[in-house]
Structures are given as C-alpha cells and as structure tokens.
Design brief:
By secondary structure, this protein is of the alpha+beta class. Helix content is about 25%, strand content about 20%. It has two domains: about 160 residues, no CATH class; about 35 residues, no CATH class.
C-alpha cells in the first residue's frame, strides 16, 4: 500500500461520520447504498474458526444476533477484523461481479499498530483516525494474510479498517469495537457475498439502526 499525503478521497466519510447523531449504522456506513450486509466474524476454538450457526444450533442466525445470544462454551469471541478465508471470499465476490479496479482506497486505523513511520502523513476521521492509502483488492488479502501469520516479518501489518473503490459503488468497514464486518453496495453484489460467507442483511426499512449488539 502507498500512503497518501492528500486525504480528500476520504472527505465523504468524515462528513457522514460527523453528521451521525448517535452511534448507529450511519456512524460506520454512509447513507446512499442500496443494502448493507453484516459478515459475522467466526468464533475460535483451539485455533480453528467456529461459525455462529454451529454454536446457535437450531436457533436462527439473525442480522442482530449478538455474542450474548450464542451459547459458546470453550470458544473465544470473534476478532474485530475479517479472517483470511472471509477476506478472500469477499474479494472473489467483488471480482466476480466485475469489480477488478486496479486501485482502491484503504484506510488503516492508527489504533491498530505502530505508525511512527507515517508521522509525516495527515490522517482523516471516519469515524476512527486513519491513514489513507492507495492499494488493491490483492493488497487487502495480502495484509490480512500477513496478519494471520504466527510471526510477521518486515513492516508492521497495515490492517485494512475501511476500503472502497474510486466510484464508491461499494464500501467495507471492520471497526475495532465490532465483531463483524459491514459491506454496503448494490443488493445483487451483496447477494454474491452472502453466498460465500456467513452473513445477514440489515433491514431495508431502518435507515439508522442501533448497532450496540455488534460490540466485541
């Protein structure tokens, strides 16, 4: 990823976050998208991912299911970021839908690592304080792959916090206090994502639902 001195590409996120009246959906996802999908990050048992539905058994997995609803004995709570299989599946769905833009915008939250080497670069807030980078869909997967390695060699991982293409036809955010990733875009695109990862659509009839149930 290439760090940017000009963060104007993230202005729309700053405006949306600043206008949000409470910590609901609009704090994390700007208005204007046809649909929003919640990707449920897996639970963990002895180093292996465990799906929400496996732990729920016969109980349905809903868009607003919280970790308190899951009877998980002997499991660790989900991480606040996509695991590698989920990231790979999401990127494949974007590509299958015809999205193979060579460059995208990637925000890296400064709370997620050591960014002293970027002290000369400006940040934006949308809603977290982030550094803006140019990258690609491959960059997202490679950084998450590095992050999943037992030992990370080289520079610290720049974990993608939010990412979107130049035309903003979709948008992805993995907030540090949330146990799921939110993906916004056209319904037909998100249908492809839902076919690949454990996920549920947020209701269409609620513009700014409270998301306190997502808290890690």
């Amino acid at each position: 990823m290439t760090a940017e001195h000009d963060v104007a590409a993230a202005d729309w996120l700053e405006r949306s976050s600043a206008a949000a009246s409470r910590p609901g959906l609009r704090r994390l996802v700007p208005a204007g998208f046809e649909a929003t999908l919640r990707i449920h990050h897996p639970f963990w048992r002895e180093g292996e991912p465990v799906s929400w539905q496996e732990l729920l058994g016969d109980a349905p997995l809903r868009w607003d299911t919280s970790i308190d609803d899951v009877p998980g004995r002997g499991v660790h709570d989900p991480n606040p970021w996509l695991d590698l299989p989920q990231a790979t599946a999401l990127v494949e769905a974007l590509r299958d839908a015809g999205d193979d833009d060579p460059t995208i915008w990637i925000g890296a939250c400064i709370a997620w690592g050591l960014y002293e080497r970027f002290s000369a670069f400006p940040t934006y807030r949308g809603p977290r304080e982030c550094l803006l980078h140019r990258g690609s869909l491959d960059t997202v997967v490679s950084e998450i792959e590095r992050d999943s390695a037992p030992i990370v060699e080289g520079d610290p991982v720049l974990r993608p916090y939010q990412w979107w293409p130049h035309d903003r036809r979709w948008y992805v955010i993995s907030d540090i206090d949330v146990n799921s990733t939110l993906v916004a875009g056209e319904r037909r695109l998100l249908d492809r994502v839902q076919d690949r990862v454990e996920s549920r659509f947020l209701p269409d009839d609620r513009d700014d639902p409270d998301l306190s149930f997502l808290t890690c």
